[in-house]
Every structure is written in structure tokens, then in C-alpha cells.
Design goal:
heterodimer; A: 303 residues; alpha/beta; Rossmann fold; Alpha-Beta Plaits; 6-stranded mixed beta sheet; elongated; B: 263 residues; mainly alpha; globular
Chain lengths: 303, 263
Amino acid sequence: MSNVIETNQLTKRFGDVLAVDAINLRVGVGEIYGFLGLNGAGKTTTIRALLGMISPSEGDVKVLGQAVGPNGRGPWAQVGHLVESPSAYPELTVRENLDIARRMHAKDDAKLVDEIIEQLSLASYADRTAGTLSMGNLQRLGLARALLHNPELLILDEPANGLDPAGVIEIRELLRTLAHDEGVTIFMSSHILTEVDKLASRIGIIHEGKLIEELIAADLEKLRTRRLEIRARNLEAAKLCLNSAGYKFVMKDGTIIMDNAHAIERSDDIARILVNAGIPPTHLAVVQQNLEEHFMQLTGGVQ
Amino acid sequence: MMKNFSAALWAETLKVRRSKVMLFTSIGFFILPLVGGLFMIILKDPEAAKSMGLISTKAQIVGGSADWPSFFSMITQGTAIAGAFIFAIVTIWSFGREFSDRTVKELLALPTSREAMVTAKFTVVAAWTLVLTLAMFVVSLIVGALVNIPDFSSELIGNSFIDVLGSTLLNILLLPYAALLASTGRGYMPPFGFTLLTVALAQIAIVTGWGDWFPWAVPGLFSGAAGPRAELLGLHGYVIVVIASIIGLGATFYWWRTADQTK
């Protein structure tokens, strides 16, 4: 099995609405795949199709080498999932909710529940009913349910939702450990792009139902490259001045961009050259593009 | 197909045990013998009954006389009508809560099959309604004994028990429709509306003489609400209920197996 997740021309229509448009996903063993998209881009629909909760209109889905659905068929004993906002039976305690999940996964070892409660820092809430939990703790309960049976694949929709900053870091480290130390494959969607940027080994960007770009770790690293941006009232004069000073640059949207390390280190000198030439820059800054910026450029949207 | 049924049954039992639905349906159902007992007290003393206005009038209509046959007649007919509501409430809660609490998405991608989960829900609902009916029958015996009404016989108890149990079983057979509508409607309101509609239509069907052809009227006819069972209800009436039940069950299982779950 080369791919843990494989979709071929996965398409889903709801009436006239094309929610997912011919997506071809390939996620390998041990990867952390970040799945990004604006609200309504098709992330959750894709995740539901991966989990057999909805049937594709066209195309097919394979998880852990096994065809998913119809009729809920799939390798679910090896898959943990968290879809959209976390939910639990409100009248049952955290422990009881997890015990239901343990039994539904046909796991006989009752200690699994205690272990996951400990791992997800839920010990002080274990005997509280789920209906009294905060959003953050409900999210922890959802993650505990996803991790309880030691799955080979985790499919997580917004795993950091509702968590406080410390919780976000804690879950990030937990997921990283699971992927790196235990070889668990993680497919996660998130709107917290910095989180995905920090965690994912590969990123897919979905927009209006289409997978418009996939970035591997090297692409992500490239995105983080610093550059010097310069704008001036007399842009042509500034270009001539920098040319004659021997600096190489490219133009983008009325901005002079220099991405070589030499220029970035000598930004003070460049500013001085322009000022002395009577072309004071209106904007001169060393910037580092990040995933968020790239994502916004690509989707042209507002998160 | 029924993979891990015991786990699903354990889960459903725990959910019912922890919910308030047991308490509320018990209260709702135990009111029946208590109201019957109250009517018997009123009917035992006609002078007191006259001084009580509306309640005594109603008691005259329903019960007629203060004795065990009248009391059990009320209980049997009440089981058929109140049971249609109360048993439906248990079913609607069992299926509809997965959508209103948004827990259904936790049930769909598990090694425990969806068929096992639906079967477990129906099993728990059927078991609970049967337990409720048996408990209500026992409470009826106690209430009748406390009110001290005449014409008690073991044969009457046996026949009344068959009437009550039969009405309950016929009502249980029709519960898949409440489950189906709680599932397809993804919540409580559509099946509640459907239950009210079927009870109303059953009354119309009985009054117009077509009750034996309308499945939801059959439990009422079985209970003797419209007259002697043998005169009003032939074999075809039971067959219609069984066929309706099979269709409802099949549709519920089919929906759980194949419907897109977007909530």
C-alpha cells in the first residue's frame, strides 16, 4: 500500500451545487497532510467522503488500500476521526462517552480509556457529564475519541478548534509525536494556517471544490524566504539607480523585489543610495511571505 | 452485517439509562391506571360524581360502571392510544437525538456496523416499551385492588393482559416510521407531526369503518375501543400491520446504510 488516502476524480454534487470537483488526493504513510480552504471550499465534504459519510457523485475513495463505501464500508478499525465541531452525549460522563467509543471499536482493554484521558489532560473532567464541558474540553474529548484505539490514520477537521493557545501547542506536539514516532498518518483541515504551516509535511489547497495547489515541505520552505520590498514615488528613477549600483531585482505590482541574501543584508545601504540619489523610498522593508499570504493570494479570499 | 451488535446494545442501554426519557415516559404511562382508578372512584359513588360536573360526565362516557371489566377496558384502550404517543416518543428520542446532539457523525465510520446500531436502537426501544407496559399492568392491578371494585376474575386478568400486550406489540410494529422520520428529518419535529397525524387519521378510519385497512388504527381496534375485536378486525388487519412494519424497518435500515450524512 503506497497511499494511505487515495481519491480518484472525487466529485460531490448537492443538487446544483458542485461541492467537490474531481479531486485527486494522494497521502502517503506517516505524512501530515494539511488541507486548507476557505469556508465552503469543500474541506468538510471531502473529509466526509473519505470517511464514507457521503457517497461520491463521481470518482472513488480508498483509505488504507480499501475502497470506502457504499453502505459505510471501510477500514474504520484503523481510522480515527474528528469531523467539524466536537459532539458527545451530553448526559454521559467523559469516561462513559469514551467507553462507548472503545466498545464500538471492539477494543476489550478498558485501560485504554484511562490512558487516553491521561494523555489528553482530561483526568479532572473524567467523571463530569459532557454537557458541562467547555468548548476546548469538548474538543479534547473529540480528539481522545479519535485517538483511543491507536489508529494508523487520523482524519481531523479543525483539530485546534476551541483550544486555548497552550492547548493548541499541546495538541500540535501530540500530533507531531504520533506522526514522527509512531508513523501515524494525519490528514487535517484547518483554518489556522500558521498551525498547518508548523505541522504539515504537505499541504493541499482547495478552492471552490477544486484542489488548486499542493505544496511539499520544500515549497513551504521556499515560501518562508525573505525578500526586500521597495516602493518609491519615482519608480523608474529608483530602478535605474539600483541597476547602476549593481543590484538585481524583479518588479511585482509596482514594487521592486530583491530576494538575494546580499541585498537583504545591505538594506540600509540600499536606502542610503536611494536617498542620496534624491529618490527616497516610500516603503522599504524586509518581509517574509508565509503560508497565510500565499493562501490569500491564491484564493483571493478572506478567511 | 451485524458486526459488534453487543457493543451497540450496551451503548444504547447506557444512553437510555442516563436519559430523562425513562422517567418522563414512565410518568406519562403510569398516569393511565391512576386516572382509571380515579374514574372508578367517581363511578362508585354517583352522587359524588354528579357534584363533580365535567369529570363525572367524562367518566360515565368512558367507563360506564365501576368494576374490573370497565377498569381494564379503559386501561386497554388507553394503552392503544397513549402507547401510540409514548412509545413513539421513546423511538423519536432514540433516533432523533443523534441528529439534535450532532452525535450521528460519531456513529458512521466505526467497526460497529450501522445495521448493528439501528438494530440495537430498535431492541432497546422495544424492550423499554414492553417493560413499561408490564409495569403499567402491574400498577393497574394494584390501583384496581386499592379502589376495591367488583367482578374480579383470573380469566379477566388473562384476557386483559392479552389485550394490553397485543395493543403494545401492534404499536411496537409501527414504530419504525417514527424512527425513519426522526432519521430522514434529522430531528424530533417531523416524527412528532407524523405521530399526531396517524393518531388523528386512525380515529377517522375507525369512525368511517375502514380502520382494519389502516395500520395505525389496528392497535385501537385490537384494544376494543370501537367494539368487539372479532367483529372489527380480521386477519388482513394484522397482515397489513406486519407488512407496514417490514416496509418501515427496511426503509430505516436502507436510509442508515445509504443516505448522505451531512450533519
